[in-house]
Write a structure and sequence with these properties.
This protein has 2 helices and 16 strands. It is mainly β and about 250 residues long. The longest helix has 21 residues.
């Protein structure tokens, strides 16, 4: 028996969500060697925000958050989009789109085709029901080793340049030449590239662990395990894009 889930989106749900900064083509291509999972494994809920990108028009780099309205198992998947997207013809019937969701411990990615576009009582898309959903565990998987500079800002202290040594969806390991108090939150300003496209993040974090180390010259270094605080939807999407890129790169070299 097919299952369907739908609700009526109130007017407040049709407000334009905040645009997601472009992150190049960091969504995995169809039929890659990443693990797949049933649609139900995403555990989507009515009203969830997910990311969408038009892959038919490569000139459209914009990625935005859309609202899940409902779905019919084996039939279609329906999302509400901002009115301004519709007004400028962001999508047309038969366009292919890429969607990404981050729920629970996993990141999901799937393709769909635009079956129909409706404009009353609000603008929404009927998308084809995905026959393939790719999934990777991102929250409790081992941290991914990276090495890029980070600006560390702390209360009553000058900004310090350190390095992100590894990173996950909930936290990171940060290296610095300066000690910090673990009583107050710190702010991390990160910049990195995905497929040659620059991205930036400004995240608040709480220090959960610390240790002293020495570099190759014997100078004292400090390493901190930090937990991200109050992540916003765009922060999660950007972090997810980075981790997805790292996981995909590892799977391709496995």
């Amino acid at each position: 028996m097919k299952k369907s889930f739908f609700f009526t989106v109130p007017e407040t749900e049709t407000a334009e969500p905040e645009a997601v900064k472009p992150a190049a083509n960091d969504v995995s291509p169809p039929h890659s060697n990443l693990p797949t999972t049933p649609f139900a494994e995403m555990r989507l809920k009515i009203g969830n925000k997910i990311q969408i990108e038009n892959s038919t028009n490569p000139g459209t780099k914009e990625r935005v958050l859309v609202t899940v309205i409902g779905w019919l198992e084996g039939g279609s998947f329906v999302v509400a989009i901002p009115q301004k997207m519709s007004q400028r013809g962001w999508a047309q019937t038969n366009d292919k789109v890429l969607l990404r969701a981050f729920t629970g411990e996993k990141a999901f990615s799937f393709q769909a085709a635009v079956l129909k576009i409706e404009h009353f009582p609000f603008t929404y898309l009927h998308l084809s029901y995905p026959d393939r959903v790719e999934a990777v565990t991102v929250r409790h998987s081992p941290r991914h080793e990276v090495h890029f500079p980070v600006k560390i800002s702390a209360t009553a202290a000058a900004d310090v340049t350190g390095y992100i040594l590894d990173i996950g969806m909930s936290g990171a390991r940060v290296g610095s030449a300066k000690p910090f108090s673990d009583k107050n939150p710190i702010q991390l300003g990160m910049q990195f590239e995905l497929h040659g496209v620059p991205m930036s993040l400004e995240l608040y974090a709480q220090i959960r662990s610390s240790k002293e180390t020495s570099d190759e010259r014997g100078a004292t270094r400090y390493e901190y395990g930090v937990e991200f605080q109050n992540l916003q939807p765009n922060d999660r999407l950007a972090l997810g894009s980075l981790l997805w890129y790292e996981l995909q790169a590892r799977s391709e070299h496995a």
